[in-house]
Specification:
The protein has 366 residues and is α/β, with parallel strands linked by helices. Helices cover 28% and strands 25% of the residues. It has twelve helices and 18 strands. The strands form three sheets. Strands 3, 5, 6, 9, 10, 17 and 18 form a seven-stranded mixed sheet that branches. Helix 5 (169-181) packs across helix 6. The protein is elongated and about 65 Å long.
Amino acid sequence: MKITAQVTRNPGKFELSNDIVLDDPQEDEVLVKVVASGVCHTDAVALEQQAGNSLPQILGHEGCGIVEAVGSKVTDLKKGDHVVMAYPFCGSCVRCRNGLPGSCERGIELSFGGHMLDGTTRLHDADGTDIGNLFGQSSFATYSVCNRRNTVKVDPDVDLSVLAPLGCGISTGAATVINGMRPKPGDSVAVFGTGAVGMAGLMAAKICGCGPIVAVDVVESRLELARELGATHVINSKNEDPIEAIMAATDGKGADFSMDTAGIPEVILQATRCLACGGTLEFPAVARGPVEFDMNADIMFPSRTIRGIVQGEAVSEFMIPKLVAFYKAGLFPVDKLIEYYDFDNIEQAFADSASGAVIKPVIKIA
């Protein structure tokens, strides 16, 4: 079938094309009419061809929509079902079999390699030239073919355009707290960076009964929203030392858990040094350079842990419906993070995301 898509043929550029050919879904795949897709930092990295990806490619990996058709072996989805498309995984490696598909051994390949599980792509130019996909979905398009494994059925009573970001960034932030930290009520949490991942993390910390919950950023408007969403303390690190402020907020003990979403070496050190004895830093970001620790003072003597966590160790099939239920109950107001853009205004959405003017841009496609 022919679809319309925003194609990236050259780094940093989008080209709206109306004659992209999308193959029928294979036996374990789903054809989705895309309603909306979030814009994530990972899309921006792929846009600049900095993720090991090849061009041409159709980006987009926080897609949601309505099932149009299913492959012969897909028995638990049908036409008309509402779905969120999440990250791809093989389902058969050791990590997948141990319930950690976010760190699938083929995860990087399936996310950025431009092909589906069978090594081929479903996307082509009108002349038959292959176009690579992203995260096994390429949701900056009117239709997408996605593997059943990373197609999650959601409540049809909820506006799909609100749920688009749950496929990656929002799920990662919330799951980093719920699955990674596993805090007890009353545990203290410090969140460094109040973008989409950080805001999702602090909302999850509130749901878990944590306190104090400290948000650290340099943008006052984001800190104001963080307080509205559950932060008990907010710190502008341009104006005060975040380590001292977190110590003060926790009666001098330090935070039981911290989470860094920025990846800046200086901030990673702050997120480590603000921890209490025995505290843990959960790190779901990508570091922007090497970090120099004093292993004795920062890690060993205070018995601190630093742990990388991919996709928040979320199993999308379970985490996404849980977040939808939280949203319906008024506990997870993800809609307050979203600004919507038309499909042909995608470049502005990326610009606003890069500048920090918008926390979570969402492209409306249908």
